[in-house]
Amino acid sequence: MNEFEFEDWCRQQQLATNTIDLITQIRKSPPSRRVQGRTKNVCGVYPSSKMGVTIQFESHTVELWAIYLMEHDPKVLEFYDQPPPFKIQYKNQAGRNIGHYHTPDFFVLRHDGACWEEWKTVKELEFLAQKYPGRYQKTASGHWRCPPGEAHASQFGLKYCVRTDAELNPVFTQNLMFLSDYLGFKSNLTTDVHSTVLAYLEANPGITIAALLQELNDVCANDIYIMIATELLYVDLSAVPLVEHYRTRLWVSQQNHDAYTHASVVGVTTKNTPSSPTTLLPNTALEWDSALWTLVNYGETTTTLLPESGFPIQLPTAFFLQLFDSGTIKIHNGVTDVTRNETVRTLMEAASPSHLKEANRKFNIVQAYFQRHTDIYQDINPRTLRRWVQQFREAEASLGCGYVGLLPRTHQQGNRQPKSPTDSSELLDKFIKEHFETPRQATGASVYRAYVRACTALNIQPLSNRTFYQRLKKRPTHEQTLKRQGAKAAYATEPFVWELALNTRPHGNRPLEIVHIDHTELDIELRSQATGRLLGRPWLTLLTDAYSRRILAVYLTFDAPSYRSCMMGLRILVQRQGRFPSTLVVDGGKEFHSIYFDTLLARYHCTKKTRPGGKPRFGSVIERLFGTTNTEFIYNLLGNTQASKQPRQLTKTVDPKQLAVWNLGDLYTYLTQWAYSIYDSNYHDSLGASPGVVYTEGLSIAGERLHRSIAYNEEFLMATRPSTPKGQAKVQPGQGIKVNYLYYWSDAFRNPNVEKTLVPVRYDPFDMGVAYAYVDGRWVRCISQYYSTFVGRTEKEVLLAAQEIRQLNKRSATATNLNAKHLADFIANVQEHEALLLQRLRDLESKRLLDNLTSSNSSVPSVNQVHSTFAVLAQQSEDVASQHVPSRNVEPLDLSSLPILAEYK
Questions:
Q1: Which residues pair with residue 738 across a beta bridge?
Q2: Least reliable range by pLDDT among 51-60, 69-78, 343-352
Q3: What domains lie within the chain, and their CATH numbers?
Q4: Tell me, what's the pLDDT at 141?
Q5: Angle 595-603/563-577 helices, nearest 10 degrees?
Q6: How many CA atoms lie within 13 A of 331 on its CB side?
Q7: Within a 10 A sphere around the Cβ of 262, how many other Cβ atoms?
Q8: Would you put residue 236 in left (φ > 0), alpha (ψ -120 to 50) or beta?
Q9: pLDDT (tens digit per residue) in 572-601
């Protein structure tokens, strides 16, 4: 809302002056704090089109879903995350008064008022209600309230609401996320497709997407999604996920849907059949062909039915559903005994496969007894047979299912009560909790000896050593490891935390919906192509699609992870795929949490999710891929560092530094061939197909979304170039702008209207000879004051030179202002400085790689070519190593004899 709309809204709400001032302060204030991820929550930022800013969230299954609802709710006018805190007071469980400042999750403005909102899960609220009964309370209607928050809001005539995950429909929210690329973005749809689909739906109302696409060859899934987003078609978004074409039904309008649904409900009520067979419980009475049947088990693949007399039969569940939907099989009289059904369900679920096998054998014999087939049960003891028949009849009379009476009851036989003395048993449990399960990590033998001494002192009989270790094994493994070794050691035994509902998909519903990015140091030593000098291990940056496990971008560099690696990874992604991901999952690295990175993601409407630290399962998709890269590719090359992981066994013959023959450019060439061709076409166990096939099929099902394509042009490259911490620089007359200690000039600065003004600036981290300034509505290229010295120099090299100058000045106790002249003079004598020399050699290696990335003629070889290349790769590496292994005593490189980097382009 603009100021006039806000004033009009305030008049409609009849708000007091102090309330208007409060809301105005909230609207103009930035978030009061930055959200943080903890052990089990994924935080991040969402680029809101409604608000025009990024909105923070601390939970990607509660707060983020609430953001999606508010983003697409027409009743919500504005919403602000982390509004200014206010003080609340309440009593805890012990009756002690507590007062502190509280920051709600959101402040929401709606057509009918404004309120603070706090979102939590029902499970969390139940725990907090016990701990702080004065803060969270559950009403008789099942809703939650916060009296301290309500007391603060009532001072201003506003509301304070506690919202729970029970209000979130997982299917509806996921469908909103699925349609996010179509909602609010322009997409092309031809009139012919529109009229064809509507004409077919009028003749076939309620047809599924799968059936429609099969009948209309000129229509694709992308066209259907465009019509749904633009409300040309109606779909019940709360019913089923849109990606499930065989279940999603299409309608011309909502009125058409409601009319057919109402008629269907009336017909179903007349037949006394349920709307869904998933509500059927064991022992439900069914009517099939005028005969009564009992539903014994309704499984995923097979369904077991028991007749009034005779043997049970098993039907394929799909065939059973077909008979049920057609009305051939229906519930008898529409009456079920829930209590009896639950008892039968409990007994059936507790039965093991061996118990079911024995019950089936008994059931066949009992049915033969009823039908007087004496040849079947002639070998059975008559007394045993009479007992089985009695058990069957008793279960039939009490539970309505005689079959469960034949289940073995061996678990009820014998004396199940503990035989050990109570005092000794309780003392043993106490010693296990207080002496064994502690960070001291005492051994079991020492704890048992202490237990025996305590029993002797108390004059009671100690339990045996065997019983002690049996008790240890029966203790919860996760809790025991957590108390003894800490949270990180116990993480492997921690139970999985599933999504908000079982039908949510943690890896998304389509390609490019969730993309993971991370860095790792490869296990291989590399050499310089120019000098043969060892340069160390390179850093690998990967971007992988969570849905298809496809590797989307690969980048190699000698520099430690930084925003430059992130920038290059995203550039390669757009260059190869022409798309930006909807959600980017990152870890807690500082390179992912900068204003530059967040601005870039918000510019292309990408949600950033930060996975919690020390929890590899949240990033298992890319963490496993790092291991696959090493085992399938890196460990097959000379110079891999497997041997150095056991330094005591390391010898010269297996030393990776002695065997290193690869340089950065060659390694990147073959690594991209493996990632984009070999790995992409290989069978993936988790997918049941290759990543490339799953990616292609996923696009056809979820829509190509071509209207969200991004051109790899100068506009995109400029968006990925970083800026200075201030983001702007002042145009100095005759000197230009100053960026990273260097002055840059452009003829556009001659304009008197531009001089002494602040202009937005950007620079290229791989070429410090140029910078860019936004002047007169366009980006202009600026040349460095010492262009011949800094052209082709990377930002890392210039920063190292600046750091080296500071160290020299610090040792000589001189105070010298750092400027372009000092840097240029220092870099001119770079051969005297080891750090700069090593960085220069690494930048020379990276230059080939960057030139290949920016070349428009670069292409990926075919799969056959790559297979044949890798067949001889190991042999070539060994031949090269045997012919020439560079000496470790390398002469210093005189860089003054080398041409500048610009001539390598």
A1: 743
A2: 343-352
A3: 3-168 (3.40.1350.10), 175-271 (1.10.10), 280-411 (no CATH), 422-493 (1.10.10), 514-708 (3.30.420.10), 722-860 (no CATH)
A4: 87
A5: 20
A6: 21
A7: 10
A8: beta
A9: 999 999 999 999 999 888 889 888 889 899
